[in-house]
Amino acid sequence: MHTPALVRWATRIRWQWKVFIPIIAVLSLSLVGITTVLRTLEMYNARWVLIAVVAFAILLCFVLLSVLLVLVQRPLEELMATIARIRRGDLSARVDFASRNDDIGQLGQQFNEMVERLAQNREEIADLHKREMARAEHLATLGELAAGLAHEIRNPLAGIAGVVEVISKELPANGPSRAVVGEVQKEVLHIQTILNDLLSYARPRPPAFHPSDLNITVEQAVLLARQQVLTKPIQIFFEENTSLPPVDHDAALIQQVVLNLLLNAIQAISKAGDVDVRLLRERGFAVIQVSDTGRGIPADALPKIFKPFFTTRSEGTGLGLSLANGIVQSHGGRIEITSVVQKGTQFMVWLPIERSSGVKSKPAAKW
After folding, report:
1. Which single residue of 31, 302, 340, 355 has CA 20 to 30 Å from 206?
2. Which CATH architecture has domain 130-202?
3. Which residues, other chains included, contact 194 with Cβ-Cβ below 8 Å and sequence gap of 6+?
4. Of residues 328 and 100, which shows the higher confidence score?
5. Contact between 338 and 345 (Cβ < 8 Å)
């Protein structure tokens, strides 16, 4: 057998066999050697032969077990000590027995590679955390600035709206300027809506939790949304869940969330269509399901749908879903969305039926 082939064969043998094969070989050779010596000395008594072989075998086993402790126990002790260092956060720790050319050495190499990957992952996570914290601080500063500007703009805007209202009353009923004034009033209202959404997002109020009937909260939002489709071929259906227990929530805020989803659904339906609202109960959560048969949302837009100022509509502000998501998160819940282009969109609002005793109400995260 060639030397490289012998090396490959030896590396495939488990370390346990590598220990016992020499023991068996040495015992066999010892038996032959001792028998030869006793025959040379003309000592043919089988008892003496057996005693000599057993004594030598015990001595040899003791020596080999000592070698085994050196070859196996020391790496194990080093491995345990290295793991303890890693548990304390020292990812620079490595095992020295990785340089061995046997199974234990391969174990050490794989362990060192695993620790190296852990160290790289921790560095990447730390770097990402720093970037996210810097971005959060930057956005928080911008949020405070925008909120201040919005507050300062609202007061003069209210004055402008009042002046336009007075002017519109003084204009002739059939005058061409009345249509222009109507457009001005519409745009002023649009600006006021944007400012209100911006202030609500930048300075959200914490929810006031009360256990109450979620069916009533959702039904009130449905009634308000139905007022928006009186002249449109759109039907809004509501299926309540009478078996749902009282849900600990802020009724005004959750009504705002549902109404926002319903208005989005209405705007997504270009002609005739349906909006279906249902209440479900899933594993300790109350689920508000809002489905529509509208144009749907492209797959590349879904990951960004809750980001502030992102919108798929030309007339949208991009703050409605961000506000809704923040409100639901402040309730300890989440919003899930699935959509198929030209078939429709489904939102599922998950709200815990009972809040944990240690969870305190907190405002939604600022941008």
Report:
1. 302
2. Orthogonal Bundle (1.10)
3. 317, 319
4. 328
5. yes
